[in-house]
Design brief:
With about 250 residues, this protein is of the alpha+beta class. It has 2 domains: about 70 residues, SH3 type barrels, CATH 2.30.30; about 160 residues, 3-Layer(aba) Sandwich (Trna Endonuclease, Chain: A, domain 1), CATH 3.40.1350.10. The protein has a 7-stranded mixed β-sheet, with helices on both faces. A 6-stranded antiparallel β-sheet has the order 1-6-2-3-4-5, with no helix packed on it. A hairpin with a 4-residue loop joins β4 and β5. α1 packs antiparallel against α2. The two termini are about 30 Å apart. The mean pLDDT is about 85.
Length: about 250
């Protein structure tokens, strides 16, 4: 059921119409949010697209320009997060021999996490490569000195590389698996990461998944000695918890 909201509540990809509170009815054509940015705490600078494809920039003053959010439904949320996932969630910097350095996260990174807080099932609508970017952004937000997003192919089993420098240097490799519910990470997959870890020479390896790990995997005799000292296993619940904390 469409509801009257402030434009700040309409996600990227959301469809809305302006609302006339005096007449208590919609006013104007349907438009889709392309991007939005808060302006000096007084409102939002919004770029939206009309049905005819024309893009328009408007200033919506907070609490003074209500709108009707037309696709505030599970299907609409899924479409919105898919639209967000088409945008850059991190800013790429210098290219290195291992990939691209991450300079910062972008506004869509935060907006995706905000949507996941409302409905964790939307995680499965986000493409695998975008999840690698989201996780890379998480390391940047956590304060790692150097975060590398490796190429989509030819990454040698390393999706994200994070380095922290101090008295000693710590190097983490993270393998990100966007799996659907019920598709569990197996012991063989974790053993493969252990092989990558040893070949890379990194301090620790993480396997991050949107799903979960096979039962009793942590008790595997070949893996147990390395968990959690050298191997960190992050399932979907823990992943979202960490992202929410980093987005604050």
């Amino acid at each position: 059921m469409p509801k009257v909201v402030d434009v700040k509540d309409v996600p990227i990809g959301g469809i809305y119409r302006d609302y006339d509170p005096r007449k208590k009815e919609p006013d104007g054509p349907e438009v889709q949010v392309i991007s939005k940015r808060q302006q000096n705490g007084i409102g939002y600078n919004v770029i939206h697209r009309r049905e005819d494809g024309v893009e328009i920039r408007d200033m919506h003053f907070q609490f003074r320009n209500p709108v009707i959010w037309l696709n505030d439904t599970p299907e609409g949320e899924a479409a919105s997060v898919t639209s967000l996932a088409m945008q850059a969630v991190v800013t790429l910097g210098e290219k290195t021999s291992e990939g691209y350095l991450i300079e910062a996260v972008t506004i869509p990174w935060f907006e995706i996490i905000e949507m996941l807080k409302k409905d964790s099932k939307l995680a499965f609508e986000i493409p695998p490569r975008k999840w690698e970017e989201i996780v890379a952004g998480a390391y940047e937000r956590a304060g790692w000195d150097e975060v590398t997003l490796t190429p989509a192919s030819g990454d040698f089993g390393r999706d994200v590389i994070a380095v922290k420098r101090g008295i000693c240097t710590v190097r983490i490799i993270d393998q990100v698996k966007r799996y659907k519910p019920g598709h569990l990470v197996t012991a063989d997959e974790v053993r493969a990461l252990l092989g990558v870890l040893q070949g890379d020479g990194a301090s620790k390896g993480c396997l991050t998944t949107t799903s979960d790990f096979a039962p009793r995997l942590r008790d595997d005799i070949l893996l147990k000695p390395y968990i959690p000292r050298q191997l960190d296993l992050v399932n979907g619940v823990e992943l979202l918890r960490r992202l929410e904390n980093l987005a604050k």
